[in-house]
Amino acid sequence: MTHAARLASIEAHAARMRYDIIEMIAEAGSGHPGGSLSATDIVATLYWGVMRHDPADPTWSGRDRFVLSKGHAAPVLYAALASAGYFGRDHLKTLRKLGSILQGHPDCMKCAGVEVSTGSLGQGLAIANGLALALRMDADPARVFCLMGDGELQEGSVWEAAMFAAHHRLDNVTVIIDHNGLQIDGACDSVLCLGGVAEKLDAFGFEVREVGGHEVEDLLKALTDPPLIEGVPVAVVAYTIKGKGVSFMEGDAGWHGKAPNAEQTAAALAELGAALASAGGEMETAVGSLLTEDPSSEGGSR
Ligand SMILES: Cc1ncc(C[n+]2csc(CCOP(=O)(O)OP(=O)(O)O)c2C)c(N)n1
Ligand SMILES: [Mg+2]
Hints:
There is one protein chain. The protein is an alpha/beta fold. The chain has helices at 3-28, 33-38, 40-50, 74-84, 124-137, 156-167, 188-191, 197-203, 216-224, 262-279, 289-292; strands at residues 65-68, 144-149, 173-179, 182-183, 186-187, 207-212, 234-239. It has a single domain, classed as Rossmann fold (3-Layer(aba) Sandwich). It has a five-stranded parallel beta sheet, sandwiched between helices. Strands 4-5 form a two-stranded antiparallel ribbon. The chain is globular and about 50 Å long.
């Protein structure tokens, strides 16, 4: 595959994922659209540009590991796993339902392709470190990617884990910060000031790469290039927009953990459908009915 074809494929998958994210959250009537949409290009780049993985063999020993530390963004992971073929797309409409493999936060005991159960913020990097340490002891070249939110950085355990990664020279770990500036209660800095995230990670011993988190080519490079210095873990600080792709959700913390109503869903899917068509993605939908629903009705998806 040429570089240009790879970029186009990642972008088409990202467009498909954004559509699926809104459809599944609308169908569930609850969930976290904002942080799922901000992380979509990052996750699509990992799954279609960076990681070695095999949907037909989810526990393949040679796989790279992905830890979604910001587990509330489960829909972005489920959208990627469905598109990659870990499970049938029809599961997407069961998000958050009793007995579903797609719980509100990822459950590795239930869902193929989910590496680690997450949702309690601040734990993913410590787990990623453990995976990376074990891989190194086995002389296994697999890499570990850990995606965290910026609000999540307010958890003290993150910084203990950051020290650990640098101290143990875990250059098989790559930390990615979805730096959208917002958490559940509003601006991160109004809740507990983060200061300079890139500067802090640098001070904790990471090689820091700052990129636009919706620039697939830059993400691909930042996530692929080996560390400049052997033994130094990489942190990619990705500047993103919460709610990216749905105009009325962008930059609005109100869409952190709320499903759109029928009218909002129709508007969001119209916008995302147009983006999907122009990205050349597939139009097969998971929930289908949402597209034909009367947008003024309160029934159906809610
Ligand atoms: C330990 C813990 N405390 C609180 C929560 C509730 N919570 C869920 S999401 C969230 C905000 C996360 O913000 P951020 O990491 O910036 O996520 P994003 O903006 O990417 O959605 C909070 C406080 C949680 N899941 N875990
Ligand atoms: Mg955030």
